[in-house]
């Protein structure tokens, strides 16, 4: 039976499952979920086997908030022999299809991490054998399918494929970012990943460039401000808590000890509003909509902190607040949310208006 396998942060299987089931049903694709708590892997077993590829063509991965990466199964779980694992994998693939790339993957758990050395070792002979059989072209072109091998142990694997045009470029959908030693907090990686994920690299020169003005709400001690400063921006950092001295010394940061919900910029020259305030997510969503619709900023990147229960419903409700506000003013907009790798009990949202707010 064919399933769509989805990778998420361990502990968020319910949210990931609820979301794929809902979004698949909008596309008239139905199935049932199988999930194990804290494994970070969700199976959506399809009622109709043919529909795996249909789903991958219709739902952009970027629209799935809680899914890091996904593939459609080509096989059930295969038991591998102790020797000749490569041959067993090649054989079970057959020669009908070709793939542009191979991803060796595991669950994002301690057991999974323990398998990564095994995967790296096996990848070398497996690639060679797949190339020899012309199953793997490795042209790395976006158009081709990507072959996934998800290992549960050294002797158990599921094989599947994703579409090169609708897949994460990272193994298991996880970008590995280096923590910059000068950054004042680990939170810095969240904004670094968010920029990488939401803003196409070929637009960084205009949208993430030096000289732009930014406001950081809930900035202390300055991990997010650091990301803006290192890109050469001038930042107003709002927080009652202290900012790292190293950032203040750059001369690019103004620190204001005021309430982030009350601060209004004096000039309409702010490009980025970023916000990591620990606050009720619906309050943050309303504030972000106000900033954008009042023209206080051009783009907003912010976290919605999630409650313990009903996390998927909460995100949907908060995004609806933004959509309703934008629709009321009849503006075109871009709005994406993702549970990024460096996020924990929160999702990151990017929003910007694509048309001016009509003046009445
Ligand atoms: C998760 S921390 C921010 C970490 C920061 N992004 C970094 O990378 O270092 C949340 C911050 O929000 C601030 N905060 C919470 N409510 C606020 C409010 N109403 N106005 C301003 N800051 C607020 C807190 O003081 C706290 O420093």
Automatic annotation (TrEMBL):
GO biological process, one term: methylation
Principal location class: cytoplasm
Keywords assigned by UniProt, alphabetized: Cytoplasm, Methyltransferase, rRNA processing, S-adenosyl-L-methionine, Transferase
Residues covered by the Ribosomal RNA methyltransferase FtsJ domain: 185-278
Reaction(s) catalysed (UniProt annotation): cytidine(2498) in 23S rRNA + S-adenosyl-L-methionine = 2'-O-methylcytidine(2498) in 23S rRNA + S-adenosyl-L-homocysteine + H(+)
Top-rank lineage group of the source organism: Bacteria
GO molecular function: methyltransferase activity
Record localization: Cytoplasm
UniProt: S-adenosyl-L-methionine binding residues: 187, 220-223, 239, 259, 276
Domain RlmM ferredoxin-like, first and last residues per copy: 1-71
Residues annotated as domain Ribosomal RNA large subunit methyltransferase M THUMP-like: 85-162
InterPro entries in UniProt: RlmM_FDX (IPR040739), RlmM_THUMP-like (IPR048646), RNA_MeTrfase_FtsJ_dom (IPR002877), rRNA_MeTrfase_M (IPR011224), SAM-dependent_MTases_sf (IPR029063)
Active site: 305 (proton acceptor)
Family annotation (Pfam families): FtsJ, RlmM_FDX, RLMM_N
UniProt similarity note: Belongs to the class I-like SAM-binding methyltransferase superfamily. RNA methyltransferase RlmE family. RlmM subfamily.
Function, in words: Catalyzes the 2'-O-methylation at nucleotide C2498 in 23S rRNA.
Listed PANTHER family: RIBOSOMAL RNA LARGE SUBUNIT METHYLTRANSFERASE M, RIBOSOMAL RNA METHYLTRANSFERASE FTSJ DOMAIN-CONTAINING PROTEIN
Subunit structure comment from the entry: Monomer.
Protein known as: Ribosomal RNA large subunit methyltransferase M
Species this chain originates from: Thalassotalea profundi
Gene name tied to this protein: rlmM
């Amino acid at each position: 039976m064919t399933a769509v396998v989805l990778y998420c942060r361990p502990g968020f299987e319910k949210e990931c499952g609820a979301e794929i089931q809902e979004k698949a049903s909008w596309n008239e694709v139905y199935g049932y979920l199988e999930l194990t708590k804290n494994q970070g892997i969700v199976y959506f077993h399809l009622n109709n086997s043919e529909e795996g590829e249909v789903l991958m063509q219709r739902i952009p991965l970027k629209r799935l908030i809680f899914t890091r990466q996904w593939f459609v199964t080509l096989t059930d779980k295969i038991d591998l022999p102790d020797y000749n694992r490569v041959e067993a994998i090649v054989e079970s693939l057959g020669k009908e299809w070709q793939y542009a790339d191979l991803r060796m993957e595991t669950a994002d758990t301690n057991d999974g991490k323990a398998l990564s050395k095994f995967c790296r070792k096996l990848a070398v002979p497996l690639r060679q054998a797949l190339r020899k059989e012309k199953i793997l072209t490795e042209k790395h072109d976006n158009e081709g399918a990507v072959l996934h091998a998800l290992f549960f142990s050294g002797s158990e694997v599921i094989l599947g494929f994703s579409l090169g045009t609708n897949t994460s470029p990272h193994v298991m959908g996880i970008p590995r970012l280096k923590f910059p030693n000068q950054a004042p907090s680990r939170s810095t990686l969240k904004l670094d990943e968010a920029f990488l994920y939401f803003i196409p690299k070929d637009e960084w020169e205009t949208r993430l460039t030096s000289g732009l003005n930014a406001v950081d709400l809930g900035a202390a001690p300055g991990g997010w401000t650091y990301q803006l400063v290192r890109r050469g921006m001038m930042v107003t950092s709002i927080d009652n808590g202290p900012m790292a001295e190293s950032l203040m010394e750059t001369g690019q940061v103004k620190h204001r000890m005021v309430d982030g919900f009350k601060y209004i910029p004096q000039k309409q020259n702010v490009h980025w509003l970023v916000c990591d305030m620990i606050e009720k997510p619906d309050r943050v969503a309303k504030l972000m909509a106000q900033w954008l619709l009042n023209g206080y900023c051009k783009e907003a990147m912010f976290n919605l902190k999630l409650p313990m229960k009903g996390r998927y419903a909460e995100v949907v409700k908060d995004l609806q607040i933004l959509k309703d506000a934008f629709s009321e003013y009849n503006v075109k907009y871009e709005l994406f949310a993702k549970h990024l790798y460096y996020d924990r009990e929160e999702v990151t949202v990017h929003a910007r208006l694509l048309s001016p707010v009509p003046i009445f």
